[in-house]
Design a protein that fits this description.
This protein has 287 residues and is an alpha/beta fold. The protein folds into three domains: 110 residues, Cobalt-precorrin-4 Transmethylase, domain 1 (3-Layer(aba) Sandwich), CATH 3.40.1010.10; 105 residues, Tetrapyrrole methylase, C-terminal domain (Methyltransferase, Cobalt-precorrin-4 Transmethylase, Domain 2); 54 residues. Helix content is 44%, strand content 17%. It has twelve helices and ten strands.
Length: 287
């Protein structure tokens, strides 16, 4: 056995335009012992295009528990391995991050090979604030977890970046509009491809646009942060009551149910407690 472990290369691949493949990535893919791919059939087409004949092995969400340790053994025996996702940078919203953790724990060197990335490509062309941003990726599939996450982000002051599929886009825009109000937002689709498009406006105008224009292609959504949160706001939030915090969100266009959920998460108290306080306030106003 080779005493020196191999290296795990995180190799970015094009998100659409094949000309975005870097010379370094092509050389590394040719020189590695094996390429771990999310979808071997998809990656095979890419390799054929660049005349790369390195063996492929599948590594994806459904086999990562068994395949991960196998790849680590090969790395420890001295083999260099490249990991690729279907498109973009491996380790971003895919199981590549799990293999990276295993490699680090095993003392294996991990090297990034930068390249195309949908989130950053969309961000720099969005027109929204690029100084501070938060990458969310895909929202949870279950309604409860998705709404909880969205609610927790209502007061977030930085630009938010999400991924969404075309068949879920309209429903997601509706949920975001309900929680955030009519904030500045951008929908970027088919990045680097022939029909690349940026739809800029607000969550409300994006909703209307995609009612009239059926979503096609993969989307990156960008939403402006809560610009009402500035210096001194944290102190104000601490001194305001949960009812006042809910009313402030409602005034900003957030529906009451999502506002209650958000305040409960921010204050680390139960939704029922916030709801009862709001209900009591409304009853007092009526009286």
């Amino acid at each position: 056995m080779n005493e020196k472990p191999g290296t795990l290369y995180l190799c970015a691949t094009p998100i659409g335009n094949l000309e975005d493949m870097t010379l370094r990535a092509m050389r590394t893919l040719k020189e590695c012992a094996v390429i771990a791919a999310e979808d071997t059939r998809h990656t095979c087409k890419l390799l054929n295009h660049f005349d790369i004949h390195t063996p492929l092995i599948s590594y994806h969400e459904h086999n990562k528990v068994s395949r991960g340790p196998e790849l680590i053994e090969r790395l420890l025996s001295g083999e260099d391995i490249a990991i690729v996702s279907d498109a973009g940078m491996p380790g971003i919203s895919d199981p590549g991050s799990d293999l990276v953790l295993l490699a680090i724990e095993a003392g294996v060197k991990v090297i990034p090979l930068p390249g195309a990335n949908a989130a950053l490509s969309a961000l720099v062309c969005s027109g929204l604030d690029t100084r501070m941003f938060t990458f969310i990726g895909f929202l949870p599939k279950t309604t409860k977890k998705r709404r909880e996450l969205i609610g927790s982000l209502v007061g977030h002051p930085y630009t938010l970046i999400l991924y969404e599929s075309p068949h879920r886009l309209k429903a997601t825009l509706t949920e975001l509009y309900s929680a955030f109000g009519d904030r500045q937002a951008v929908a970027a689709r088919e990045l680097t491809k022939k029909f690349e498009e940026f739809v800029r406006g607000t969550l409300g105008s994006l909703k209307e646009h995609f009612v009239l224009n059926e979503p096609r292609g993969e989307f990156t959504l960008l939403i402006s942060g809560n610009l009402n949160i500035g210096e001194g706001q944290d102190e104000e939030a601490e001194t305001s009551s949960p009812v006042e915090a809910v009313m402030a969100l409602v005034a900003d266009g957030v529906n009451k149910k999502d506002a209650i959920r958000t305040v409960a998460l921010q204050r680390k108290i139960s939704k029922r407690e916030v709801y009862q306080a709001v209900l009591q306030h409304e009853n007092d106003v009526i009286i």
